[in-house]
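Sample entry was shown:

___
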Amino acid sequence: MKLFMTRKDVQRIIELAKKSPIEVCGFLLGRKAGNVLIVEEARKTRNRLNSPVEFEIDPLEIAEVLDEAEKKGLEIVGVFHSHLKCPPIPSEKDLRGMNLWRNVWLIVTPSGEFRAWTLENGEVKEVEVEIR
């Protein structure tokens, strides 16, 4: 699997992480073509836990994003969030979330690191991110 994103979207997510005292989060909206995910838009959401070490997105906001994506002919192809003080590797809580949201998970750090992951058959696999 490969994740295609624009430099602008990745930089925007990293900038959000740099400016925030809490984990930032949101969805990657786009299209799936075989084993390729093409991100058209990074849609920020509110972290309702207001925490520097974990995030949660309000179910009503999830419904709003799903409606927005559908109107644009897109789907949720991924989840993004930041790790403020640790590497961009899924935490135990991330793994539980990945089990529920079977999408790609993009994790960024304020220093500009980013990596993407997926959970397949209980195994965490890194996803190649190609910037276009």
Summary: Helices lie at 7-19, 59-71, 92-100. The chain has three helices and seven strands. The mean pLDDT is 96.
